[in-house]
Structure formats: structure tokens, C-alpha cells
């Protein structure tokens, strides 16, 4: 899976580095201790040890379960009971919660010789088990085979012209598809370098990209901070302008932030679309049209279609439907959940639960989640994201989330949750603003001002938590 022989730096965390050859030595030594285990957990702190642990498990052919170090007691208990890890791998200095005390601990060190690496396991062998956020119940363990990881990494490398000469800079958590599979295994697969910032800051990002960094991965909350600052920060602007590629994922990048970054740097951010069960589905190409709000074309080997509520394929440009996917990038199953696995597929197509549209040239756009971002009001099917982007164009709006609530007359009414940028505007002013930019039936019927929006570790707004 990885070319682990070169003396090029593979991993950089602060002043700690490992070359590809050094990574092979310490991960290979650890892999010998893991061989034969059914499954291991990885306490996924943002450290070089987490990367070594995951690579060692992959070399040993042992499925790894990355665990969010901020996980709550109940969720951790579920993950441990469901995945039954034979050991938990952790950095020596990392304290483990009580919920993991029953699992044998194995400290990850950077010592090792140059062992003979094991043979590559079968392509269908489970590589990672990544637990979903559990917004509709207990988290499900998504079993990702080696085939899915390899196909996705090679597909995005083609789309982004990603090579071993690239130095990827990011500060993403290492327990999720974005930060771990794309952000760690991606540069290792190419024989390149990951420079992990530990914690995101525009100052550290500036230094990294002004140095040897060529690519950045981030989530919209990071790009929002960049957009807020880049107009007044010439050093940040110059560093971003120097980068070969800026990629945003895990949630939609607001059009306003996309345009502010482009105006200040000349760089247009590349957006892509993926999820835990499918890894990467679509992306804007490095040499393609980086239009705001679009997540590009299907990646090599991936098929994408839109269907209506009855499962009928929609071919018309601009038609709104559920996104369904099939290809080598798909997961194998939900661990211990054959019922949920069967329910997730329709005639071999994975039902993403996301709703989107397709432009005339085949570019896809994500409207939102079927459950939380599609509002049926007054006989219209309305995407929350369109209204959010419109509200963000108002100077008094800093952040926004749009939801639907039951309404006896309309079926659902549109509710806007606003973090103001200064003095609160009136609800009527904001509703009129949306009606002017879009159409009257898309105006918010209720506007609620809040100090902040609830977000998860990947920066996604947790809409189900609004109003609770």
C-alpha cells in the first residue's frame, strides 16, 4: 500500500519527523507484535504515534479502529463492546479513559529495526473500522476494505495531480476519513510528506505554506477563519497564493468565503464530496473549473446518480434528488449490523442520504442532507444551503444555519439561526434580503439570534442540536 523505502520525510509533527524508511522500521516492528490479532483500537491523538499505529496495523493486516480522544463515556462503551479490540495502541504520554482500561494497552514508540515487511493482504481484507457520528442512533462501525482506500487515494491523486513531491499541510483530527485516510495515508501512498500542524492557526498555516508546503486540506470553519483574515494579512495571502492546491471538505464551503479567499489570493478552493461509507465520490479537478458550490465530477471508477423519492433515476439538468453511489470506493458493511447494511443499498447502489443536483456539464452540487437540509414548505422542496449562502451575503450575518420546523399551514416553516457580525439586524430585513436574492417562498419565517452554532469535530453544524 505504501512505498516505505525513501529517505524523504514522511511525517512532520512540530519538530518531530520520520522518513519513509524510519516509518517502515518502527511501524514494521510494531506490526510484528500485532500480527494475528483480530482487531485493534487506536487512541487517535494528533500525534506522530497515531500515524505509526495505523500504518503498523495496515502492515500487519489487522483492522484498526480509530477512536476520537474526545469521545464521551457512552459512545466509547459502545465502540469497545461493538468492535471488541484485542489491544489499544496509544502514544506513551497519552492518558486513556476508564472505558479503555479493560483493553490491553500497547504503547507506540518510534524505535525499531528494518524488518522484512509482511506480504500485502487481500484487497477485500478489512483495513479500518471508522465509527459514524451516530446522529440517528448509536454510531455504526463502517468497515473499509483495503480496496476502497487504495482506489480512493489513487483516484484523488489523479484528479489533484498529487505526487511524491507534494507536502500536504493540515490540522485535521486523525480519527476520521478526511484527516486520517486522505490526510495521512494519502501522502504516504504517494511517497510524499504530511506536515501536521497539531492545532489549526493561520499563523502556523502561513509558516508551513511559506516553507515547503504545496497543498492544504481543511474544513469550512478553517477556511472561514482564513477568509476573515486574509484580506488584512499579506503574509497569509502570499502563502496561500504560493500553494499548489487548497482543498475543502467534510461540509459545504460557503460561497462568500470561497469568493473572499479568491479575491485576496487568486486561489480558488477545490471542493470534493465524500463520506465515511464511500470515501471520495466526486471532486473538482486541479485543472478544472473551480466554481463555488460545486463538488465536481465523479472520480475514476465511481458511478453517481440522482434518484427521486420513488427510486427513479433523474437525468434532467438541475433536477433535485438523492445521491446514490457505486464503485470500488464503497465500504463492505456496517460491523455487526447486517440489517443496516442491507437497508443502505438499493440494487447495488449506496443510498447516501444526501440530496444534490447536476449541472449541464456533469458537475454535482450538494443541496444538503435529506433528513435535515431539505425543507418542504408550502408545496416547495427547498434546500437549506441555498438560503444559508444568501444570508451570508448580508453584512450583518457572520454565521448561519437554516432548518425546518413543523407548521400547520406550510407543512414546514423555514427557520434561520443567525450569529450576527455586530449589531443584530431585524428579522424582517433578513427575510426581505433572502426574498430579493432568491424567491419569496424561500424567505425565513422565523429568525433566531445565537452566540454560536453547535459543531462537531469536523466543523459540521449539528442542526439536530439547535433548539434543544
UniProtKB/TrEMBL annotation:
<feature type="domain" description="AMP-dependent synthetase/ligase">
    <location>
        <begin position="7"/>
        <end position="335"/>
    </location>
</feature>
<feature type="domain" description="AMP-binding enzyme C-terminal">
    <location>
        <begin position="386"/>
        <end position="460"/>
    </location>
</feature>
<dbReference type="Pfam" id="PF13193">
    <property type="entry name" value="AMP-binding_C"/>
</dbReference>
<dbReference type="InterPro" id="IPR025110">
    <property type="entry name" value="AMP-bd_C"/>
</dbReference>
<protein>
    <submittedName>
        <fullName>Acyl-CoA synthetase</fullName>
    </submittedName>
</protein>
<dbReference type="InterPro" id="IPR020845">
    <property type="entry name" value="AMP-binding_CS"/>
</dbReference>
<dbReference type="Pfam" id="PF00501">
    <property type="entry name" value="AMP-binding"/>
</dbReference>
<dbReference type="InterPro" id="IPR045851">
    <property type="entry name" value="AMP-bd_C_sf"/>
</dbReference>
<comment type="similarity">
    <text>Belongs to the ATP-dependent AMP-binding enzyme family.</text>
</comment>
<dbReference type="InterPro" id="IPR042099">
    <property type="entry name" value="ANL_N_sf"/>
</dbReference>
<dbReference type="InterPro" id="IPR000873">
    <property type="entry name" value="AMP-dep_synth/lig_dom"/>
</dbReference>
